[in-house]
Write a structure and sequence with these properties.
The complex is a heterodimer of chains A (222) and B (188). Chain A is an alpha/beta fold. A five-stranded parallel sheet of chain A has the order 2-1-3-4-5, sandwiched between helices. In chain A, helix 1 links the parallel strand 1 and strand 2. In chain A, helix 2 crosses helix 3 and helix 5 packs antiparallel against helix 6. The radius of gyration of chain A is 18 Å and the shape is globular. Chain B has 188 residues and is an alpha/beta fold. In chain B, helix 1 packs across helix 6. Chain B is globular. Classes of the chains: A alpha/beta (222), B alpha/beta (188).
Chain lengths: 222, 188
């Protein structure tokens, strides 16, 4: 089985999406799955890179898309790629027509994983419209908790057995078990803890970057 | 009342361009001054997720392209009207590339709305949000998802009202555009 990890975070270096995706991909590789990784963002303004990415999709039996929630749904470059993938399927072209399954790993910057629901439904709808098989999703809130860390050393360590179960299922050509999805969706921290410390973290980052004094600035006239 | 109409059609001959025409006409017929922006003509890079618009230059994206002036026009408007193709129940990628660049219009700080955590507003008021999506073929599931997405966006964007309609490629958009324009009057 060939599996392609598509990293949908626009960040070129470390990101929660990359950490999440690589955690699953390493488990699939350990189960004799052939894997590749590609970033989505560079394809947004390059037809050449978009074509290369759809070629990669054509290589894969399973595509694992790992991305953040942006404005309640998928980031624009990921949307653009899905449109190109669907166009390839629609035209019955060689490119984009092979990948049989799509699984989604998604995280958001809020404590509640349900902010990811629209992104999940969009991917499920993509599958319904294109005939690609929906292989399920793992979603969690507090996405930043995983940025640049291994899952074992993150607050999501408790979900490692669920990730193993997801890898078992996907390596066998099966969808992610709903029990694994439920395990990931459990909040890492109570909402009040998240909002308190999250607000503090933004203030600290603004102090470091020089924006602290103007954090609440209304920059544009109304 | 003034409206910023984002025409996020992929081409002038696309059905979503005709939907934008219909939305323009429906709003103008009610005395709304319409400022139409053709999104495909803008120089818009995708959001890089740097959060500079919250921490380095609060309220404004750091990318020097058409994104910051577009955000300024959005927040100055009474109505944000959008016409675009519906991609699997969500905004087409052109429209989405614009919205991804708007997070500086809210604050990084958190608040609770209906028991859910969201970002605090940065501004005193936000535009009403109406959306007219087009589909190649009628698809009720995708249309329902699109309406759900617009509702979620309106919560996070602190819009006083929102409404969404979806029409298929060969369907006249005038009636749907009219309902959207009426929804703004009702929501005001």
């Amino acid at each position: 089985m060939n599996t392609l990890l598509l990293v949908g975070s626009p960040k070129p270096g470390t990101s929660a999406s990359r950490s999440f995706g690589e955690a699953l991909l390493s488990r699939l590789a350990a189960r004799s799955v052939t894997t590749r990784t590609a970033r989505v963002a560079p394809s947004f303004r390059s037809e050449v890179k978009l074509a290369e990415l759809t070629e990669e999709i054509a290589w894969a039996d399973l595509v694992v898309l790992s991305c953040p929630v942006y404005v309640d749904s998928l980031p624009a470059p990921v949307t653009r790629l899905l449109e190109a993938w669907a166009a390839g399927v629609d035209a019955n072209a060689r490119v984009g027509s092979k990948a049989r399954q799509l699984a989604l790993l998604v995280q958001c910057g809020f404590p509640e994983a349900r902010h990811c629901n629209v992104a999940i439904d969009v991917c499920r709808q993509f599958c319904a419209e294109t005939g690609v098989e929906w292989a399920g999703a793992l979603a969690f809130g507090t996405g930043g908790a995983l940025e640049g860390r291994s899952i074992e050393r993150s607050p999501l360590a408790r979900a490692v057995p669920a990730l193993d179960a997801a890898a078992d299922a996907l390596a066998a050509g099966q969808p992610i078990p709903s029990s694994a999805s439920a395990a990931f969706a459990k909040p890492i921290a109570p909402a009040w803890v998240y909002t308190l410390f999250g607000g503090l973290a933004w203030w600290r980052l603004a102090r470091k970057r020089g924006g602290k004094e103007r954090l609440r600035l209304r920059r544009y006239p109304q | 009342m003034n409206a910023l109409l984002l025409d996020a059609s992929p081409s002038a001959s696309h059905s979503s361009s005709r939907a934008a025409d219909a939305l323009h006409a429906a709003l103008a017929a009610r005395g709304t001054q319409v400022d139409r922006v053709i999104v495909r003509d803008l120089n818009l890079h995708p959001c890089t997720g740097c959060f500079g618009c919250w921490t380095k230059r609060p309220g404004e994206c750091l990318i020097a392209d058409d994104g910051p002036p577009l955000a300024a026009r959005v927040i100055a408007s009474d109505v944000l009207a959008v016409a675009c193709p519906v991609s699997f129940g969500m905004w087409g990628s052109l429209a989405k590339s614009a919205f991804d660049r708007m997070i500086g219009l809210v604050l990084p700080h958190f608040t609770k709305i209906d028991g859910e955590v969201h970002h605090e507003p940065r501004y005193a008021r936000y535009p009403h949000w109406i959306a007219l999506g087009t589909q190649r073929r009628p698809n009720a599931d995708a249309a329902a998802l699109f309406a759900q997405l617009v509702a979620r966006n309106a919560i996070n964007f602190h819009s006083p009202s929102h409404a969404a309609e979806v029409v298929s490629e060969h369907e006249a958009a005038a009636a749907a555009a009219d309902r959207l324009a009426v929804s703004v009057e009702v929501g005001s």
